[in-house]
Each structure stands twice: as structure tokens, then as C-alpha cells.
Design brief:
The protein is an alpha+beta fold. The protein has helices at residues 8-13, 15-23, 61-68, 70-75; strands at 3-7, 27-32, 35-40. It has a domain at 3-40: YefM-like domain (YefM-like fold). The chain has a 3-stranded mixed sheet.
């Protein structure tokens, strides 16, 4: 991946150009002087199911939700998947 650096003061006036570069696959690193402070990259195409098991809902979510919002609980039903710990590296 090609990387370009831009000072933040210049980047403000060139935002449209920077976004075009990012869409084309270029990584943009913003700097203040010689110090890198942020990176702009394309989010790419999102893929459902890319990290199965990485996100889960706690078993007490519905209980906490019901206690905090009893009027909403009467209108909706919650279906919870069993807790699966996230897979580590």
C-alpha cells in the first residue's frame, strides 16, 4: 500500500484530493511538523461474519434492559445467543 504524508494544515484545504487518494488505495498519514498524529485509510468493503464470536451479548443484557426500560420490554422481545468467548490470537 502506498503511503503519503500531509501536514494537517495543508490537509484541511486538500480534503477532497486526499479522499480520492484513499479510495484509490493510498494510506494518508497526517503530521504536525515531523510528528505523525493520525492515519487515514479506506474502510474497504465490509464483510459480514468476518470475525465470528468476536462480539457477543452478555447473559444479563435483557435483565438490565428490562429494569431500565420496562415500557420497551413490553413491546419487544430479546433473543440472546449463548455466550461464546472471543477467540484470542
Amino acid at each position: 500500500m502506498l503511503t503519503k504524508t500531509f501536514d494537517v494544515r495543508k490537509a484541511q484545504k486538500d480534503l477532497k484530493e486526499l479522499l480520492s487518494l484513499v479510495v484509490a488505495g493510498t494510506e494518508i498519514v497526517f503530521t504536525e511538523g515531523d510528528t505523525p498524529i493520525a492515519r487515514l485509510v479506506s474502510i474497504g468493503r465490509r464483510v459480514a461474519g468476518l470475525h465470528p464470536g468476536a462480539i457477543w451479548t452478555s447473559q444479563d443484557f435483557a435483565v438490565a434492559h428490562s429494569a431500565a426500560n420496562p415500557e420497551l420490554d413490553a413491546k419487544a422481545s430479546c433473543h440472546l445467543a449463548p455466550h461464546r468467548p472471543a477467540r484470542g490470537p
